[in-house]
TrEMBL record:
E.C. numbers: 5.2.1.8
InterPro entries the record matches: Cyclophilin-like_dom_sf (IPR029000), Cyclophilin-type_PPIase_dom (IPR002130), Cyclophilin_A-like (IPR044666)
Organism field: Pontibacter ummariensis
Record-annotated PPIase cyclophilin-type domain positions: 77-245
Matching Pfam families: Pro_isomerase (PF00160)
Domain of life: Bacteria
Name the UniProt record assigns to this protein: peptidylprolyl isomerase
Length: 254
């Protein structure tokens, strides 16, 4: 399973519609119905992607599926998230996996209090999405504020381009940071936070140490209390919840 960089490493980094017309209409409707059916069949089958075709498939999918709201359901309640249109590959990937039912076989498998809860994977999974990664889509508008939704990835040594995991995601639960810590990250990462971003980090919290390292592609808009309940789950020495926290995800309309 892919993990974020360790909590200890993060802490240490802080230091720094007639006749013919209806007939044509019926034919058109029939063709449209067939297209929809074919699309649904493909989604339910979740044709695995590869490193070679992932960007092409996800780019085309992003144009056909403008969905931007999803609900993550757990035994603790629902978490509603908004997916950013400015990160099209990550948004398309999340929507595609969700509509195919892939995430309904997942769970929150890593919980680090005051840092993040990580989901998407499961040892019980039977559906395969293929072996691929998603090119990073860093956007200065989107930071790791408390409630941010981002994708996990392998570390820099094996993944210098900082490409994202194909399916593992996390939600940030970090606490408020000190101004000097924020200034240190700005200098270290060449970041210029806006006043609103500074306020979010100083008053609400988050993890600025993850900015420009992991792609943020959405945020929690309802249900942060549910995230907090998951965050309180007892864990073992590897940060795995002692009681499994399964999740299902569905796409909802605006």
């Amino acid at each position: 399973m892919i993990k974020l960089f360790s909590y200890r490493a993060l802490l240490s980094a802080f230091i720094l519609a007639s006749c013919l017309a209806p007939l044509a209409s019926c034919n058109q409707a029939s063709e449209e119905d067939q297209a929809v059916a074919a699309e649904e069949e493909e989604e339910q089958g979740l044709v695995p992607l590869t490193y070679e075709n992932a960007v092409e498939v996800l780019s085309a999918y992003a144009e056909k599926h403008p969905d931007s709201l999803a609900v993550i359901s757990t035994r603790h309640g629902d978490i509603k998230v908004r997916l950013y249109k400015e990160t099209p590959l990550h948004r398309a990937n999340f929507v595609r996996l969700t509509k195919a039912g892939f995430y309904n076989e997942g769970e929150f498998y890593r919980v680090v209090k005051d840092f993040a809860i990580q989901g998407g994977d499961s040892d019980e999974r039977t559906m395969s999405q293929g072996g691929y990664k998603i090119p990073q889509e860093f956007n200065p508008k989107y930071i790791h504020k408390r409630g941010a939704l981002a994708m996990a990835r392998y570390g820099d040594e094996r993944n210098p381009e900082k490409e994202s995991s194909s399916h593992n995601f996390y939600i940030v639960t970090g606490e408020p940071v000190f101004e000097e810590q924020l200034r240190a990250y700005e200098a270290q990462r060449n970041i210029d936070y806006t006043p609103a971003q500074e306020q979010a980090y100083l008053e609400l919290g988050g993890e600025p140490g993850l900015d420009t390292e992991y792609t943020v592609f959405g945020e929690v808009i309802e249900g942060m209390d549910v995230v907090e309940k998951i965050e309180q789950e007892p864990v073992d020495a590897s940060d795995w919840p002692r009681r499994v926290v399964p999740h299902t995800i569905k796409i909802v309309k605006e």
